[in-house]
Amino acid sequence: MTSTSRHVPVAIVGGGQAGLSVSYHLKQRGIEHLVFEKESAAHTWSTQRWDTFCLVTPNWQCDLPGHPYDGPDPHGFMKKDEIVAYLKGFVAKVNPPIREGVAVTRVERREDGLFSVRTSDGDYTASEVVVASGGYHTPIIPRMAEKLPGSVTQIHSNQYRNPAQLPAGAVLVVGSGQSGAQIAEDLHLAGRTVHLAVGDAPRCARFYRGRDVVTWLADMGYYEMTVDNHPLRDGVRDNTNHYVTGRDGGRDIDLRRFAREGMKLYGALDDYHDGTLRFRDNLKRSLDGADRTYNGINAAIDKYIAENDIQAPVQEPYTSVWEPGEPVTGLILAGSGITSIIWCIGFTPDFRWLDASVFNGAGSPKHKRGVTKEDGVYFIGLPWLHTWGSGRFGAVGRDAEFVAQAIQKRLGTERFALKFAV
């Protein structure tokens, strides 16, 4: 690092809602900082979502710092363009000191205790570094994809926009988490023949006993539960999100109903060999497990209603509307009509640019509500960083305030005047 390096007290890597929330709270404290964003502020919501994408949690849960949802439909679910507009409003309110189009390529500790921050636009030094780049960096596409014939179009869920972008023919959707289930529904509603390789994702009801399930769970304190108090502890961070949708005002996603309407369901996709797609014999177990979770959440709501003597309409437990027959563990691709595959099996994080002793053996950051044991290194915006809402609009602001307080304690506001010229 040369003597011409520019210094900033706090470097925030990532300009999504997490990084911008930290910027908001640092500005409140008069702490100089700079946000580095390799694309544009909050860009992923407009560039990596399909056309019919909408929130799966009610609008009232959108509570970014200084920018709560104040639209006309608090119990509705914002669509893609509405989410983008909401975030643009947040960016305007924060007015962050941000370098858009600047990628951070390396961060490491110097001998003098500062961090060297190498970017695509030159070198910086920083006293504190906030990692706000999220955990969804590299799309997961299995090696078996390399064996599939070139005539089959393959995309990842982050590339999917609408059914019209795919060639005519059937579509294989691999994975039934939130993205996979919603994309499968999008294709199904468009009249496409859909084959769905079902994973172990749980599901939940959209509405139960007269209210949105999210509203019940909020009243029950679920969203205030911290990772330390969760029965799974840190293991909850690896959980797959429940599939449900806010589309058309919100409804359940019931894969069994889709199957009854013609969607082809299989167990998890295991391999492609000798022209045949190989599936595990776990479809029934996966569907039954998802339904157990669904009914289990509803049973917890029943208990809460009874204990608090709440008047609410009675609703029966979910019962299966379709059962799988003899398991299909092999499907000859050439005769299936499948012309495209959408991989909906998630992402892997990539923190290789950060040289710091803050990772466990699996490459995941070790922290306490975003504060690591290495002085001056923080994380924000990761799933279950502290609570269920840490990676969402609902609670990322509170985590950002906690991180900003930790930074303030380390730096001391007396030494740093507020300077926002970039």
UniProtKB/TrEMBL annotation:
It comes from the Bacteria. Pfam families: Pyr_redox_3 (PF13738). Keywords: Oxidoreductase. GO terms for molecular function: flavin adenine dinucleotide binding; monooxygenase activity. SUPFAM superfamilies: FAD/NAD(P)-binding domain. PANTHER family: FLAVIN-BINDING MONOOXYGENASE-LIKE PROTEIN (AFU_ORTHOLOGUE AFUA_4G09220) (PTHR43539), FLAVIN-CONTAINING MONOOXYGENASE (PTHR43539:SF78). NCBIfam families: MSMEG_0569_nitr. This is FAD-dependent pyridine nucleotide-disulfide oxidoreductase.
